């Protein structure tokens, strides 16, 4: 009996769960129960485990959003400290899980862990570390702020930054040493741990975005009421407190916090993306094909020069805009006009570069790489998804320009600018996605057999047309399976390699220049809204059409997404730069 | 020269685009241009074509949403007739494309078109036709409404229903005869056509949801102001018109429209899902594995009986609720309490069934089918995505119950009900997804070679434990590729088949009963909100915490999603019923 049970265990987890088919059907019930017990602890189908943990994560997130919605009201019944307490609990849970995970790995140091080489690169980790350090500074400011108002603030305001700082340090350690791990043991438990970490970071991101939007709104309303003396009441962002001692330093901290928000927000969204890739990788079998990307930089002149020019003019525009927007009506209008004209020139250059890149790809037919690569797929989906915010904002602007009766000087420049925003993202996304999916050249160059094959092929293809036609038709069997197509496309590819003699030919040089230029332009377009240059708040056209609350809601959703898009496209374009 | 060009054509589109590698590099530019021209008309990489058209579709949708946002304002600058004109244009474009497509197919009648058998079933097409007929009735009502108010309504209100009716008829014809087509010619153009159709339907859905929400809100506000005499002004839903002739019949049409909205909304979302599957299938190579699903119904007793009981009690609850909710405060509170108690019982039964189904699956280990199947993957994603609305609503309720100071009798029943809603969707999604992904049994039964294989395998696996262990380990090579895993799982599967002797064994019988019960319960839970039983509007708890506008916004987003979820899960569960 016990021997039979033992057999079942071996069998169940590996290949077969009905080993004892010869047994009678009377004790089927007892067996069913045993199998059940074994299966519950044993291997659970991967697809289901994904949904099981994914649903947990989403629900965690929705609880947080429901709390935020309750807090966001004018006279909330739910206090902000409740929300902070909830988020703190999630962070503590994540800390416990991370510690457990790290200790487990430490103990199993000897067993080799599989790693996904595509998951992250050293420069992403470097950038994350910088963002994390800025987040730590922010936590320090938060503690300082609490000290100033400690008499009238809940303890949650003190516990939160302390836990957040610990969480940041532990998480960066985790990202440095474990983010590439492909988990193969205790899969279900680890899935829950990772997805918990993902959505904790997403919630922290949401919280950051909410705070940032609130601050920006207060600022905007203050400016509106100051300049146009409209009847909007200013919402006090600081607590009403009896003890006025040291409140000036606390205000200083509070003002310092504002400049650190953008970095904290980017930090959390980046971390959650990396953790999501880790989650998707759990239980996968990774085919390791680490390609050594050699970044050659000869012949890079036009791209960097234009890019630096763009970056310099951006900083100039930013400074002029921020100083003028606080001035009288004429100065403000000229600042907005200047922004749009600058934007149109910038975006036209970017559109042209993107279109040129796509045309070069059309002239140089290379089959796409269809192998599974989680982080690449996620990259493209994020690029596409985060474009939505900016596209929606642009279409709202276009509708507003067409319907408004305003005579503002920047009415039609706003229109052209918005059209260009749509077009530029459209082309840039296509360019990035095609670049990431193209099979890398020179990867199989060293294989002598392939070269021989291409030799033969190129001979046949340089024959007289009718003959070549016959041969080609012979290849084109009606029952063409995907594998065969793949094979064929590889043939194309081999024979194409033939042509490239120079280490860095003309086409690749142009592509590299385009990538560099686009990186700098995207960085410029990130810089502007991140540091307060948001003409969508200041031009007044859309606000007339949609009303104040609807339009600011759209902006509060779209601008953070757009910031993320710009950052993400810089990262993707850097990848493109290394690949082409 | 010309011969060379001709060679290029043959070569480019099939296998090679660098046939003339022996040519000098001086005329490279001219060649590049020729290739470019050829490639632009030739094969564009599939991944890019998807993004190219997908981005177009999304932008179309965003324009529509921007217009809706502008119209939704209290004193809009953009009139509703503008929105209707825009949607009408989109429908006309779709009509032209559909006609073109149908004519093209007609002309190429002789060539066999590949078809995706998974794309739709005859009962889905039947249900769609019924929904389409109700949409046509709605169009007739709209025309009647226009006739009544023709003197003060824009012409767009007349053109819209006429075009919509034509569009509905043409679209149903298209769905009946072409939705399963796998397009292989003119792929890029067809992609644009199909995605245009998808997003036209999505926009029509959005428009319908907006109208329905507006109507429900008006009704709700009317009731509030009538019962509690609150100071909310009633928004007139009928145009202010000088000609009062025949306006009473027009009001009748307007009231009739209200009951037809839910069907129209479901029609458009269903069509867009089907078209999306068609879009995903463009250019794919479908492996045809049509399985004959024989639906056996012996032994189905408990499921249908309980299901009918649920359906009957639902209708009773619906009638009582709708009559009582118009009454005085005590009657209204009792109606809300009744709803929650009924819901708890219902959901507890559903949770129990779902959990039982999952336990049976755990006891009966079958490998999951990992082959590519676009419509199945979309099904699961839609199920997951549409759960979000209801989950969010539930978490908002839970937060509200925990924070409120209200002493309402239904406070804690609301809490339990919301918890059950979350749990029920969680379990049901897992159950449906696992059911759809499990490999179907008996599919390869007839193959004698497989049976022989399983014979051998079962012999080895019934050996003494140590020996079996060795064999098993021999299979487990470290470089296990996905194909091999597939192979192995098929082995398991073969050996499992051995066990099933009866045509419909105990486990499958239970699963079938569960599926039937869940179908009826989901239909019940669709019926209630679709016909106006929405206690979330009437209980007042959440409204206290989130405020009127925020909470109604949440409901306007969540309730349509929940309606779609219930309908979609009925369809999925029917599929489960046929498979198990």
Automatic annotation (TrEMBL), chains A, B:
It is found in: Cell membrane. The keyword Transmembrane applies. The keyword Membrane applies. One of its GO terms (molecular function) is proton channel activity. InterPro entries: Otopetrin. It is a multi-pass membrane protein. GO terms for biological process: inner ear morphogenesis. GO terms for cellular component: plasma membrane. Pfam families: Otopetrin. The chain crosses the membrane at residues 56-72, 84-103, 123-145, 157-176, 188-210, 257-279, 300-323, 339-361, 382-402, 414-437, 509-528, 548-565. Keywords: Cell membrane, Hydrogen ion transport, Ion channel, Ion transport, Membrane, Transmembrane, Transmembrane helix, Transport. PANTHER family: PROTON CHANNEL OTOP, PROTON CHANNEL OTOP1. Belongs to the otopetrin family. This is Otopetrin 1.
């Amino acid at each position: 009996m016990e021997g039979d049970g033992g057999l079942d265990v071996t069998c169940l987890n590996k290949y077969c769960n009905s080993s004892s088919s010869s047994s009678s059907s009377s004790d089927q019930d007892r067996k069913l129960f045993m199998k059940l017990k074994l299966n519950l602890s044993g291997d659970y189908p991967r697809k289901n485990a994904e949904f099981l943990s994914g649903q947990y994560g989403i629900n965690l997130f929705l609880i947080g959003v429901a709390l935020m919605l309750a807090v966001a009201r004018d006279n909330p019944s739910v206090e902000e400290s409740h929300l902070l307490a909830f988020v703190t609990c999630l962070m503590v849970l994540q800390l416990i899980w991370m510690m457990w995970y790290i200790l487990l790995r430490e103990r199993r140091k000897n067993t080799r862990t599989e790693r996904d080489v595509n998951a992250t690169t050293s420069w992403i980790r470097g950038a994350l570390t910088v963002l994390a350090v800025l987040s730590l500074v922010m936590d320090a400011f938060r503690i300082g702020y609490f000290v100033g108002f400690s008499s009238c603030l809940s303890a949650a305001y003190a516990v939160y930054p302390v836990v957040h700082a610990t969480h940041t340090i532990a998480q960066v350690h985790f990202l440095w040493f474990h983010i590439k791990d492909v988990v193969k043991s205790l899969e279900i438990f680890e899935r829950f741990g990772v997805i918990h970490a993902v959505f904790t970071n997403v919630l922290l991101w949401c919280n950051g975005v909410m705070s940032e939007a609130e601050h920006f709104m207060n600022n905007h309303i203050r400016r509106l009421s100051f300049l146009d003396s409209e009847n909007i009441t200013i919402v006090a962002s600081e607590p009403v407190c009896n003890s006025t001692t040291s409140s000036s330093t606390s205000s200083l901290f509070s003002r310092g916090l504002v400049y650190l928000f953008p970095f904290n927000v980017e930090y959390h969204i980046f971390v959650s993306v990396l953790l999501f890739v880790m989650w998707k990788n759990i239980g996968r079998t990774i085919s390791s094909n680490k390609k050594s990307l050699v970044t050659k930089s000869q012949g890079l002149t036009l791209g960097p020069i234009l890019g630096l020019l763009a970056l310099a003019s951006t900083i100039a525009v930013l400074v002029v805009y921020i100083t003028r927007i606080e001035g009288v009506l004429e100065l403000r209008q000229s600042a907005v006009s200047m922004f749009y004209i600058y934007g149109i020139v910038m975006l036209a250059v970017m559109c042209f570069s993107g279109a040129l890149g796509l045309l070069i790809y059309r002239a140089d037919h290379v089959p796409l790489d269809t192998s599974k690569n989680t982080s690449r797929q996620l990259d493209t989906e994020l690029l596409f998804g985060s474009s939505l915010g900016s596209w929606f904002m642009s279409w709202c602007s276009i509708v507003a320009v067409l319907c408004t009766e305003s005579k503002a000087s920047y009415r039609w420049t706003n229109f052209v600018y918005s059209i260009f925003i749509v077009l530029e993202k459209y082309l840039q996304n296509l360019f990035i996605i095609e670049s990431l999916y193209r099979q890398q050249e020179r990867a199989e160059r060293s294989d002598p057999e392939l070269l021989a094959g291409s030799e033969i092929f190129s001979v046949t293809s340089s024959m007289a047309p009718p003959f070549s036609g016959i041969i080609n038709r012979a290849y084109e069997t009606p029952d063409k399976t995907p594998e065969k197509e793949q094979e064929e496309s590889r043939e194309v590819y081999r024979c194409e390699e033939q042509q490239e003699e120079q280490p860095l030919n003309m086409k690749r040089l142009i592509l590299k220049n385009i990538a560099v230029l686009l990186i700098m332009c995207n960085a410029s377009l990130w810089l502007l809204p991140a540091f307060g240059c948001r003409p969508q708040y200041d031009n007044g056209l859309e606000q007339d059409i949609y009303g104040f609350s609807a339009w600011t809601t759209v902006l509060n959703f779209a601008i953070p997404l757009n910031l993320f898009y710009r950052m993400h496209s810089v990262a993707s374009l850097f990848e493109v730069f290394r690949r082409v």
